[in-house]
């Protein structure tokens, strides 16, 4: 079966004055998948989404959506919904106005989904949208994005200001609606650990360039974490592709950029080391492109990983 391509970019580049926000991005987004768009602040995630949805024009390169150039083609643009983290609404807009406008614009609009989510998120109906809290604004964006049922839907950090309960509602509703109505969803996020269960593929951007674009399971399988006593760990990782390494006192952890073999597992066990899977968040950070944890955080992580080994070895 051939994979359907929803979005294809070639050499996509966006410069702002002397700064390059996106550089030579060539990729294909598979149709009917949920893809995470990851990368540190300023990596180019919003710029990428703006270009694909024709809200901005590239300095060089091309975008194709379902094989066609989206810019100034209303029939393609109306197939896409871009939920921005800083979406603005007219000053006098209340909830009903935003919903009514979306219902007119999006051909696949589903009012029952909108009504259910408005209730679940407890979005106020009386006040104007410009007085909404940050979390209420995010919730409104999520309602419009999911109820649009757009064949291609972009969410740019959709969780800003949402409390943990509301984020849980979003994740559950997204999965439920996607299962019932498969479509192409692209989410930019810094909450990788929290959202990794949603993601089938990831695109990782670093300073405007794509550094990874693959299935989450393949990315996860490409590395492992090893923890234990520093001396044993040093000799275990010698000659291996070490992506990151931390130590505190006599304990250390390392992320090794190789798929672990049965021999690796027995060698680690014999040396009193513990091998474990790397979380997507840690893996992205280990490749040098995730949010940088503070030195204390990472040292604590090293100590936690290592002390688990100590306990299991005891
Ligand atoms: N309109 C603009 N004018 C000038 N520079 C811009 C403009 N829009 C984006 N940039 C720059 O382009 C780069 C990429 O920005 P972008 O917003 O795409 O990053 P991002 O990955 O979405 O970041 P974040 O995670 O912080 O939202 C940044 O350096 C940003 O300052």
TrEMBL record:
<dbReference type="GO" id="GO:0016887">
    <property type="term" value="F:ATP hydrolysis activity"/>
</dbReference>
<feature type="region of interest" description="Disordered">
    <location>
        <begin position="291"/>
        <end position="314"/>
    </location>
</feature>
<keyword id="KW-0547">Nucleotide-binding</keyword>
<dbReference type="InterPro" id="IPR003593">
    <property type="entry name" value="AAA+_ATPase"/>
</dbReference>
<feature type="compositionally biased region" description="Low complexity">
    <location>
        <begin position="291"/>
        <end position="303"/>
    </location>
</feature>
<dbReference type="Pfam" id="PF00005">
    <property type="entry name" value="ABC_tran"/>
</dbReference>
<protein>
    <submittedName>
        <fullName>ABC transporter ATP-binding protein</fullName>
    </submittedName>
</protein>
<dbReference type="GO" id="GO:0005524">
    <property type="term" value="F:ATP binding"/>
</dbReference>
<dbReference type="InterPro" id="IPR027417">
    <property type="entry name" value="P-loop_NTPase"/>
</dbReference>
<feature type="domain" description="ABC transporter">
    <location>
        <begin position="7"/>
        <end position="232"/>
    </location>
</feature>
<keyword id="KW-0067">ATP-binding</keyword>
<dbReference type="InterPro" id="IPR003439">
    <property type="entry name" value="ABC_transporter-like_ATP-bd"/>
</dbReference>
């Amino acid at each position: 079966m051939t994979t359907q391509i929803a979005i294809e970019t070639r050499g996509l580049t966006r410069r702002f004055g002397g700064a390059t926000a996106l550089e030579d991005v060539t990729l294909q987004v598979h149709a009917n998948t949920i893809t995470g768009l990851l990368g540190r602040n300023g990596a180019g995630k919003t710029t990428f989404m703006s270009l694909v949805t024709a809200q901005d024009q590239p300095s060089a390169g091309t975008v194709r959506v379902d094989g066609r150039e989206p810019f100034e083609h209303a029939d393609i643009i109306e197939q896409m919904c871009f939920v921005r983290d800083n979406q603005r609404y007219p000053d006098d807009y209340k909830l009903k106005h935003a919903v009514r406008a979306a219902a007119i614009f999006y051909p696949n609009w589903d009012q029952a989904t909108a009504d259910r989510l408005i209730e679940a998120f407890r979005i106020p109906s009386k006040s104007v949208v410009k007085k909404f809290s940050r979390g209420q604004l995010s919730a409104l964006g999520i309602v419009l994005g999911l109820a649009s049922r757009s064949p291609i839907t972009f969410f740019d950090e959709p969780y800003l200001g949402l409390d943990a309960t509301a984020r849980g509602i979003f994740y559950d509703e997204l999965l439920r609606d996607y299962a019932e109505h498969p479509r192409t969803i692209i989410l930019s996020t810094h909450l990788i650990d929290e959202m990794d269960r949603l993601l089938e593929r990831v695109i990782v951007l670093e300073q405007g360039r794509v550094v990874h674009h693959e299935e989450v399971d393949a990315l996860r399988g490409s590395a492992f974490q090893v923890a234990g006593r520093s001396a044993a760990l040093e000799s275990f990782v010698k000659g291996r592709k070490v992506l990151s390494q931390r130590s505190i006192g006599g304990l250390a952890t390392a992320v090794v950029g190789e798929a672990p073999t049965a021999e690796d597992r027995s060698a680690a066990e014999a040396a009193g080391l513990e091998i474990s899977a790397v979380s997507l968040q840690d893996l992205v950070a280990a490749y040098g492109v995730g949010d940088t944890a503070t030195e204390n955080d990472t040292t604590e992580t090293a100590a936690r990983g290592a002390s688990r080994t100590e306990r299991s070895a005891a």
